[in-house]
Amino acid sequence: MTDENGGIVVEGVARSFGSVQAVRDVDFQAPPGEVTALIGPNGSGKTTLMLILASLLAADKGTVRVAGFDPAAQPSEVRSRVGWMPDTLGVWESLTALEVLKTLGALYGMSEAARTSRAEELLVAVSLTEYGRQPARVLSRGQQQRLSLARALIHDPAVLLLDEPASGLDPGSRVELRSLLRSLAAQGKTVVVSSHVLSELDEIADRAVFVNRGRSVKNQTLDEAGTQTRRYYVRAEPMSALAAALGSYGVSFETRGDSRREEFLIQLGSTAEAAWLLRTLVLGEVVITAFAPAGGALEETYMSLDTDRL
Amino acid sequence: MSTVTEPSTPQPVRAATRLSHGAAVRSVFSLEMRQRLRGRAWYWMLGIWFVVIGVIFVLGLGTLDPAGNEGGILFDLIVGFVLFFGLLVAPGLSANAVNGDRAGGTLAILQVTLLSPGQLLLGKWLASWVGSLAFLVLSAPFIFWALTLGGVDVSEALVSLLMLAVELGVLCAIGVGISALADRPLFSIVSTYMVVALLTVGTLIVFGLSSALVTEEETTTTSYYDYPQSAFQDDGMIDPDAERECTTQTYVAPVVHTEYIAWLLAANPFVVVADAVPYDLPDPSTFDDEPDSFGYVGNYYSPGVMEMASQLVRAAQEGPDLDVTCEEAEAAFMPISQQTPIWPLGLGIQVVLAGVLLLVGRRRLTMPARRLARGTRIA
């Protein structure tokens, strides 16, 4: 499916640097028209995987297909179709944002007219129009991050690889990034995003690949993640009444240890079960002041994976 | 970030998976030049350069005798200094071209485009060459000043400047090549200076050390003019009517056959420039035959520094004169005309060195990378 029409297919990929095995065995698919999140702790091999997909690093073994092409054998085919936003900020300090975009456009073989109009469009898209003619060194970190995103989009790639795109962005920019990525996916592009900020990925990702110690440990769509067991925080006034009520319904709970407020943590199998519990508690005259999922669906998966400090 | 992401031209790059060499090299070149022109460092270097060359020129102008070969010597001095400073400046401009970008995180961004490693290196080399040529251009006022003093052939001036430009290009190529190979800018700049030192000082040292290998015992004949014993009067003064006589001696002595090792000097940048320049040597047939006040026959010959270098190389190529006749002893310092040009060999060695460095550097930049140096990150 994804092989023919684009997207990304990775099977059994491994890559080591000397004695360090950065990627051991990763399988995943990122179909076109969807945002795929690459989730894992620091040093789990996410960036290495991104570099392999961006045709900068050769895999030791395994097969990789990006937009239907092998990055190792046909790098030019892949490069013309892939936009890559690195996790490091590479800045040509004395160049203006517009010049950076136009230069990159030229290096993707775009005509003068095409790259100029595309660069102007992208500056609007990432809200940097007023900085277009200023040297890049005056940009703040978040602005440079946005310029980096625009750079990755300059040749209208079918596949987007974004390594930590949200880091350094203010809340407003994050919302804009989210809608930008959703609209790109809606246009049929393949979007791969790596991030630690799971609550954010919850809202933009269609599927998630969990990577730890160089292995892909779980592939999951967000719909699947939504139906899994989740934890809820419940607060009531007084807490003793809540404890008594929960005890009488046979619902096990624990006291949350990582919060300033006193809260109970309850494991529930589905949203239906959560709705039932809330209704029952309210009808049972328990004064509920808070009843909320403990984290996003992806965070739940992340925390539930049986890996050390994933 | 609104939703304006629909491209104005649908699929603008789908067709292009290759970049024309012209467009690619031009893009890299202008990227480099823009950064250089907007930085301060380059202007500071140019300013210091101008002042130093100016000071040297004015000092030379003040100390040299206007009656002598003033224009020629001053021109030669400027050429020598431009080459000397060029050897110092070119590595600085070129030897961090690639790994400086790697350190700044911009190299991978270029590598992920359709730009090929060869195009990248070519653009970087051209930019650093043009950057160094600016130093040559800035020396132009002094070069023209020296030329107006006369004594310098048009061909001599043109070839000198052309060879300077070529040497700067070769040095920049070496610097860019090393910068693609070495991981850290500091290391590559120091390495490039080491290569420059190897070419300029190293060749001389090797030449000097090798002379022991080509020293042989030879029967040598020398001649010299002196007054005979009878010319000395009782008071120790020389009889004004006495004639100097030629004495010829033959003995066995160690002789250095520099003709076997002269090629070791070829790759020296000063030798390459000096040997290529067609200096306008005085023609012995125009010399008057009357000995001058020092008893020597022939015109006074005063070469500049570069011409002197060229003469020394030719003397080394010629080897020792095992039979100095009375006629030779009578003549003043005779300029040696060129027999076998040595500069094509020297330039060839330099070009091969630069080419090898660039080729290995190109392989190093070819992505996807299979091997990475320890401690380096692609991005």
Automatic annotation (TrEMBL), chain A:
The keyword Lyase does not apply. This is ABC transporter ATP-binding protein. It comes from Arthrobacter echini. Belongs to the ABC transporter superfamily. InterPro entries: AAA+_ATPase, ABC_transporter-like_ATP-bd, P-loop_NTPase. One of its GO terms (molecular function) is ATP hydrolysis activity. Pfam families: ABC_tran (PF00005). Keywords: ATP-binding, Nucleotide-binding, Transport.
Automatic annotation (TrEMBL), chain B:
GO terms for cellular component: plasma membrane. Keywords: Membrane, Transmembrane, Transmembrane helix. Pfam families: ABC2_membrane_2. The keyword Transmembrane applies. GO terms for molecular function: ABC-type transporter activity. It comes from the Bacteria. PANTHER family: ABC TRANSPORTER PERMEASE. This is ABC transporter permease. It comes from Arthrobacter echini.
